[in-house]
Design goal:
- The protein has 8 helices and 10 strands.
- By secondary structure, the protein is of the alpha/beta class.
- α4 runs parallel beside α5.
- Helix content is 38%, strand content 22%.
- It has an 8-stranded mixed sheet, with helices on both faces. The chain has a two-stranded antiparallel ribbon with strand order 9-10.
- 32% of the residues are buried.
- The radius of gyration is 23 Å and the shape is globular.
- It has one domain: P-loop containing nucleotide triphosphate hydrolases (Rossmann fold), CATH 3.40.50.300.
């Protein structure tokens, strides 16, 4: 049953409204991995109460969180990642990655250059350490740049049945909540396969004789 995808090495852009989907993906990934995870925070996405409520103790213990309050601080934290991320790292997270560069205290030309350099650094870390790097971005002004820089994009949508995540090679096929679970057609296709167009032509093996054939 696939509710959220696993994260592969490379730069993944998560397009979602709010941080709920981010917490779900991070928690799911860290529950299945060993090694430290590095979180470069912006806009207070690493809210302790939300993390402890959503993530398991194991996932929380693996997180190393560094907070940035300005674009200059954020860029310096990202620049420090190549020297900090261990070879056995399980994940790098940079939520609201472009938001710090929209601050008024950074000139427009400088903000553009810093945001571009930050994305290049995150991509370089993903390649050098062969680690998943998960980023999110606000709607403006750099979300399109973040999407373009990413190796893959995941789109997350809140539905009445639960969180739906769509990507190039993934689509949520079952929804689980406290009330139970709701399956989808792709779930059953993956479980049972697809019936051939001419189902009557499929060989079904030996057919048991009828009672008349046995007695006659």
């Amino acid at each position: 049953m696939n509710q959220v995808p696993t994260l592969d090495p490379g730069l993944t852009y998560l397009d979602a409204d709010g941080p709920a989907a981010l917490y779900r993906l991070v928690g799911r990934h860290l529950d299945d991995r060993e090694g430290p995870a590095y979180w470069v925070d912006a806009c207070n996405r690493a809210a302790p109460a939300a993390l402890y409520e959503t993530l398991s103790r194991r996932a929380c213990r693996s997180l190393r969180v560094a907070r940035a309050f300005t674009g200059y601080q954020h860029h310096e934290l990202v620049r420090s990642l190549p020297g900090r991320v261990r070879p056995n790292a399980s994940l790098v997270v940079a939520p609201a990655v472009a938001a710090p560069y929209a601050d008024e205290d950074i000139p427009g030309y400088g903000a553009d250059a810093m945001c571009s350099a930050t994305l290049e650094l995150l991509s370089a870390v993903a390649t050098a350490v062969d680690v998943p790097v998960l980023v999110t971005a606000d709607a403006a002004p750099y979300a399109a740049d973040v999407r373009a820089a990413a190796d893959r994009t995941l789109d997350a949508t809140a539905t009445r049945a639960g969180l739906r995540v769509d990507g190039r090679d993934f689509c949520t096929d079952v929804y689980v909540d406290e009330w139970g679970y709701q399956t989808t057609i792709p779930y059953w296709v993956d479980l049972l396969g697809v019936a051939p167009a001419d189902a009557s032509a499929v060989a079904t093996g030996p057919v048991a004789p009828t009672l008349g054939e046995v007695l006659g």
